[in-house]
Amino acid sequence: QQQEEEAKGLVNVLKTGSLPAPLVEQSVAKLGPTLGRDAVAKAQLSFALGTILVLIVMVSSYRWSGFIAVGGIIINVIMQLTVMSMFGATLTLPGIAALVLTVGMDVDGNILIYERIRDELNLGKSLKGSIDIGFGRAFSTILDGHMTTAAAGWVLLQYGTGPIHGFAVLLLVGIGTTLFVNTWVTRLLFDWYVHKKKDHGTISI
After folding, report:
1. How far is the C-alpha of 164 from the C-alpha of 168, rounded, in Å?
2. Which residue has the higher pLDDT, 39 or 113?
3. Which residue, among 141, 144, 116, 142, has the nearest Cα to 130 in the 3D structure?
4. 25, 33, 100, 166: which has the highest count of C-beta atoms within 10 A?
């Protein structure tokens, strides 16, 4: 009998669509328009500081090859911002996060290539052969990592909304530009650097 009465009460509540409970104001908070602006400014500052630290580490670890990596990163960021401007997109906090992530992926790709080249040089192979093997064999590893991240980005793009959707869009754009820079732009810069230093007889990898 008691369960039946509870069931009837629940049915009545669902039919009416409201609960007989008063609303009591407990607290009020006002947010100014500068909150979002401050968050974006701090995110931009963290992106700039993080990028500068990454560039310092690359240059100190790989010397002139590190400068090539820096050039590739700059080109990568410019390409991403260009794609955004073409579609009239706005750089938001999730977009900055995706930009930082793709910069890290770009650096990872360069490290894989450079370490592979160093390994081949330590085995006594020629500079040209080491470069060819370094870019060739590192490509499959770079591609696997990018495709894994792209799969996660695609899922976010399909099922995410709002900021998550924006993050996924720029992430997928960044994956494409990063793969292009790692495998083509960096190779062109590297070949130019080797050819220039070869004429002067000084090459450091």
Report:
1. 6
2. 113
3. 116
4. 166
